[in-house]
């Protein structure tokens, strides 16, 4: 959803959609405003839409191609936007966005491995029966 479509949502509905409150969204926007590039081509998306794109990527685990189509940008552009937003918010140190996986004694997870390889299905051949 674009920013123009969700401005009328109440705080509870907005949190259900994005995972954060309006106040956190506004703080994130203030931090992103500090990192607007002065050179180069301006983005097609507004800063609000860029942040929403990133939040939808984090919240829904959709692939970047689908998110890009939803926002009218390419998959590569969606990836660049997510990386830019993550980097800006991480540099601000106001948000807990860990990019590094803990190593050694800090590592205490249960791991589940899922085999998602594609295997051809063997189906019986159709036979023509005459009645």
Largest sheet: none
Number of domains: 1
The SS-based structural class is mainly alpha
In the predicted model, the low-confidence regions spanning at least 5 consecutive residues are none
Helix and strand run? HHHHHH
Q: N-to-C terminal Cα separation, in Å?
A: 57 Å
- What does the radius of gyration come to? 21 Å
- Rounded average pLDDT: 81
Percentage beta strand: under 5%
Instruction: Please give the count of helices.
Output: 6
Instruction: State the helical fraction.
Output: 40-55%
Structure summary, number of beta strands: 0
From the spread of the alpha carbons, the general shape counts as extended
Overview of this protein structure:
The longest helix has 18 residues, at 75-92. With 131 residues, this protein is an all-alpha fold. It has six helices and no strands. It has one domain. The chain is extended, with a radius of gyration of 21 Å. Helices cover 49% and strands 0% of the residues.
Concise synopsis of the structure shown:
The protein contains six helices and no strands. The protein is mainly alpha-helical and 131 residues long.
């Amino acid at each position: 959803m674009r920013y123009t479509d969700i401005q009328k949502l109440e705080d509870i509905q907005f949190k259900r959609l994005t995972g954060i409150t309006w106040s956190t969204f506004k703080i994130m926007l203030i931090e992103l405003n500090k990192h607007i590039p002065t050179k180069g081509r301006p983005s097609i998306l507004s800063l609000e839409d860029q942040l929403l794109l990133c939040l939808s990527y984090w919240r829904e685990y959709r692939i970047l191609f689908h998110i890009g189509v939803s926002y009218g940008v390419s998959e590569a552009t969606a990836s660049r936007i997510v990386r830019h937003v993550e980097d800006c918010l991480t540099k601000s140190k106001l948000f807990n966005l860990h990019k590094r996986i803990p190593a050694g004694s800090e590592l205490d997870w249960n791991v589940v491995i899922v085999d998602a390889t594609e295997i051809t299905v063997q189906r019986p051949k159709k036979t023509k029966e005459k009645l």
